[in-house]
Write a structure and sequence with these properties.
By secondary structure, the chain is of the alpha/beta class. The protein contains 13 helices and 17 strands. A hairpin with a 4-residue loop joins strand 11 and strand 12. About 1% of the residues have low confidence. The protein binds manganese (II) ion. The site of manganese (II) ion (MN) has 7 residues, from loops.
Length: 399
Amino acid sequence: MKILHTSDWHIGKQLYKQELHEDLLLFFDWLLQYIVTEKIDVLLVSGDVFDHANPSQAAFKQYYDFLKRLIPLDLQVIITGGNHDSSAVLNAPAELLRTLNITVIGGAGSLDEMFIPINKNGERIVIAAIPYLRDKDLRKPDAGETYTDKIELAKAALRTYFSEVNAHYSTYHKEAFYVLMGHLYVQGSQLSDSERDIQIGNLAGVEVAMFEGIPHYVALGHIHKPQVISAKHQIHYCGSPIPLSFSEKEDRKQVNLIEVENNRLKSVKKIEIPTFRKLVSFEGTLSEVKEKITQYTDETPLLSFAEIKVIEEQESIENRYAFETFVTSNPNEKLQIVKSRLIYKNLVEGASHHFAKNTDVADVTPLQMFEKRLELEPDLENKEALLLAFRELLEELGL
Ligand SMILES: [Mn+2]
């Protein structure tokens, strides 16, 4: 039996106002071809199907267009909700999709609903399709609890939750090969800029030990950089299929192929996804950046996206004008400048408040902005509680 593990598609995502629709379309073409050629039996999508809780019509269309192409195949599809997804939105067509061999678990339900047994060619596997768990799925908060209490209680509740998931496996599916899906932050994983600020419940990250070494493979989503969290216990983040921020520009994106034989793990392979678009960064004086950009070549099917940081000695209108003219001049047909900054050295050195002067507001998350705002209130005593409330608001609003 062949299982493919992917996550964090973020359909509808924009990168500095540029649509990533074509990138995903090329990924879906490639994925479909791979599933057909390799005769994949099960496709797992571990959360963050959409970038927004309320996806655009174009995002829905891209999702359904791809699912439609999977229907003729002899393939089981299992999709879980991530922190970016609205469980209600994902679940709306779940009953219809189930008749087409596509199981969607948008939000936490009963363990019975989330355990999906698959029997094929004498192999027995079971998928515990656990979506992103919100605080309300895990416990009832107590009005009097402090920030530290809250984190500790949330972590303890997660441990209990996964312990119950494992117990459910041991009680009802013990003979089957056990794959656990999850959408959460595990301690020690390497982050990139495109994951939303780590949320309450996952705030400090859970320990690998939480999985108790029981699942035969743990198919995680949430972190966009592909990585192996534990080779011994087969705990993996497959990462997003396309780079979603400039901090991922060096990542080799992948899907994971899990082969099961005689109800045992035969192998886990990382399957590299072709690069459809390059993200590149250039830094230096304007003339240095100009030269590098003019010489830039690239063979990927889509235009490269470039971020440029021009650093000049002195602030002057001429410098600003030359910079702006260059940025808007379309200097190389192989790339598009999507993010540009001009920084003056004399200001960098003298700046005491560099956050305000040399930070692009597009790089600041709402949470960082709120933290900065709190710094301006030295007499405020309940900052941690305010931060927590702010995080909860962000989560509630899906921001
Ligand atoms: Mn994600």
